[in-house]
């Protein structure tokens, strides 16, 4: 069963093409408590699509897990939020931070920061349809609306609408001229603006996101804010999460080992393959398991040389562990 209020103390960011159900299952073998997010799913894909199971199914082991929705229609978002709750998600998150051209052409994502009243309506509409938390992930601004005063106005509107939690990527989004990748690195980080938000909205839970890669950074942010969201570092170096449970969730469980994680991936991979899946759809997500360790390059090569071959199966992991 979903937890009524998932903890945002440490979470993994929604990342298109990366945080699919296979990566989330894999990361859950490393951390039992970090909050995980789906890739963004658009309202159109849910309401007009014929295969919601492909977009929305997940393994029970993934809890706590949040569904991130993309859209600009309060009515459509509310309907999709209700569907997500019925699927068993622990939280509904609204995407107001993605700067891609595709998202902009649909008039949602980061460009919605220019329309705080609309985002507030989106929040309130979703909250009428679900009992689970409704949260918003957004930037500190967009070009043309990038002052702290603009950010304050935006947050005040969604706070009045009853948003349960906000996740703030501490960069503005530049909507013209920069790619999504460049928008993750070129606009400067403005952590102080997020800290200032917490001072101005002390009762609103706030998580910070953007450029955070180490435990010392996580610990520093947690002295000022309610949560820390990790993005690319979680994918590139997933074993960073091996001691997240003990450090931030007071867990007394035995720390995982990389070898145990690989062993626990074998039955999952076998089940997925027997259901008609291709093993490389799973194995591509675990290539960073030995990041920073001796043998990391050899591990990646061992998997990539084998996972695309005809007949590839879970024996790839069994053979690696037997070495």
TrEMBL record:
It holds the Pfam family Dus. Keywords: Flavoprotein, FMN, NADP, Oxidoreductase, RNA-binding, tRNA processing, tRNA-binding. FMN binds at residues 14-16, 68, 137, 169, 209-211, 231-232. Transmembrane segments: none annotated. InterPro entries: Aldolase_TIM, DUS-like_FMN-bd, DUS_fam, DusA, tRNA_hU_synthase_CS. Signal peptide: none annotated. The active site is at 98 (proton donor). Belongs to the Dus family. DusA subfamily. This is tRNA-dihydrouridine(20/20a) synthase. It comes from Leptospira bouyouniensis. The gene is dusA.
